[in-house]
Amino acid sequence: MNIESLAGLATVVLMLGIPIIAIVTSHQRKMAEIIHKNQSGADSQHLAQMYGELQRLQSEVGQLRDRMNQMELAKDDLSQRLATPPMHVRNDSGSGNGI
After folding, report:
1. How far is CA 63 from CA 53, 55, 67, in A?
2. Angle at 64 (CA atoms; ends 60, 69), nearest 5 degrees
3. Could you give the CA distance from residue 21 to residue 29 in angstroms, rounded to a whole number?
4. How many CA atoms lie within 13 A of 33 on its CB side?
5. pTM tops 0.85, yes or no
6. Phi/psi of residue 32, each to 5°?
7. Mean pLDDT (10-residue bins), the chain, 99 residues
8. d(C-alpha 51, C-alpha 57), whole Å
9. What b/e string do you get for 36-46 counting C-beta neighbours within 10 Å, with b at 16 or more?
10. What does the DSSP 8-state code read for residue 26?
């Protein structure tokens, strides 16, 4: 092989190689963008799910707190009733017995 044929071959390789390299790098860049968008979309979807779960748990804690307060009030009411002696009902119906 002489220098002229080697230069011709190098020219053809460069003419075909540069566009192929440009196409491959463009494809890689687009795929990286797609992957990045999918990951950020998945992250935002995961955050939305976590936020919904957080709201559900906050609601459940609020319900449990209300229930505990009701039970505490019922317990206090019951202990007050047990602590006070029962009052006798006086019968003032006016039957005239005098007793």
Report:
1. 15, 12, 6
2. 150
3. 12
4. 6
5. no
6. -65, -40
7. 83 88 93 84 82 94 95 91 75 57
8. 10
9. eeeeeeeeeee
10. H
